[in-house]
Write a structure and sequence with these properties.
With about 150 residues, the chain is of the alpha+beta class. It folds into two domains: about 55 residues, no CATH class; about 80 residues. The protein contains three helices and seven strands; from the N terminus they run H-E-E-H-E-E-E-H-E-E. The strands form two sheets. It has a five-stranded antiparallel beta sheet, with helices on one face. Strands 1-2 form a two-stranded antiparallel ribbon. A hairpin with a 2-residue loop joins strand 1 and strand 2.
């Protein structure tokens, strides 16, 4: 007798779960559409208004030509002599500018990722990332930026 009760409960649970999944998917789609309609517009291309994500997708369609590393802040005395405003340009064929080998070594994974369209979900601007020098005594903060055509 207990087995029948258990199987009946299981069947009713499965039916309830199926109905919930159907309802939840439609509700999620409705929320997505409502969110899309109420979002402010951030740009216009050929008379078509675009929200922030659509503007980012149009920007990402452009080819990345290089990645620029800019010194945003520097405290203490950097051994290589980095100053605020120093710029280093990195392309697939090499590096233009002067950069500390330790900072370069620590930021290369991020630079390569940005060269090949990696997305970092925690960034507000997908084309700009900050990076800290590994020297904790004389910290330098770099800003890594994609440059598109």
């Amino acid at each position: 007798m207990k087995r029948k009760v258990h199987s009946q409960k299981n069947q009713s649970f499965q039916k309830g779960r199926r109905n919930f999944c159907k309802t939840a998917s439609f509700a999620a789609a409705g929320l997505f559409m409502a969110e899309r309609q109420t979002k402010p517009f951030y740009g216009e291309i050929d008379g078509i208004f675009l929200n922030r994500r659509e503007v980012q997708e149009v920007e990402m369609a452009k080819k990345i030509t290089s990645v620029v590393v800019n010194v945003k802040s520097q405290k203490g005395s950097c051994a290589i002599g980095h100053r605020v405003g120093d710029i280093v340009k990195m392309t697939e064929s090499g590096i233009e500018g002067k950069i500390c080998i330790h900072a370069l070594y620590s930021m290369l994974p991020a630079v390569f990722a940005m060269m090949f369209e990696a997305r970092f979900p925690w960034l507000k601007d997908p084309d700009t990332k900050t990076h800290a020098c590994p020297d904790a005594v004389n910290p330098v903060i770099f800003e890594i930026t994609r440059v598109r055509e």
